[in-house]
Amino acid sequence: WSTCHIYQRQKKLRSFMADRGIAMVSYGCLGSPGRKNNPDIGLPNMLENLVVKSIAERHCVCLRFLIQSGIAVIPKSATPGRIKSSLDIFAFSLSDVEMDSISELHSGKRLFTYHRVKHDGNYLFSEEF
Questions:
Q1: Which of 51, 73, 84, 94 is the S-S candidate for 98 at Cβ 3.0 to 4.6 Å?
Q2: If we measure between CA atoms, which residue out of 118, 120, 121 comes closest to residue 129?
Q3: Helix-then-strand count for the chain, H and E
Q4: CA of 105: how far to CAs of 22, 39, 87, 91, 109, in Å?
Q5: Which residue windows are coiled coil (predicted)?
């Protein structure tokens, strides 16, 4: 699994994995807005982003974007309504325009840092850390 969300799309890692037939699984796919000590990365909460909100009036956007990009997601919620809406992402598709709009939100910023592996010489994508 890897941190992968609308602000950190992991293009190089996804390409590397796809070339080897490995499926990417997204951790922190909604940015973990309820997490204590969530870092301030200088970007709005994903669910409050204006692009996401404008599309979200019609769809559960962040999860569908990742699924439609070929990434498995692990959404976390204890709220029955949110759990149901997470399952509803298979009932629709985002348009090409919506996918492009969300793709443009990529900033390369991480919500989770992995200090123990950050400087490991075996990690192939250090520049994406």
A1: 94
A2: 118
A3: 5, 3
A4: 25, 18, 24, 24, 11
A5: none
pLDDT of 21-30, one tens digit each?
998 887 777 7
Q: 47: closest CA among 34, 39, 3, 90?
A: 34
Q: What is the pTM (predicted TM-score) of this model?
A: 0.57
Among the listed residues 88, 112, 109, the one whose alpha carbon sits nearest the alpha carbon of residue 9 = 109
Whose CA is closest to 50, among 95, 101, 97? 101
Question: Is the separation of the CB atoms in 66 and 80 below 8 Å?
Answer: no
Angle between helices 61-68 and 96-103 (to 10 degrees): 100
pLDDT tens column, 75-112: 777 778 777 777 888 888 989 998 898 888 887 766 66
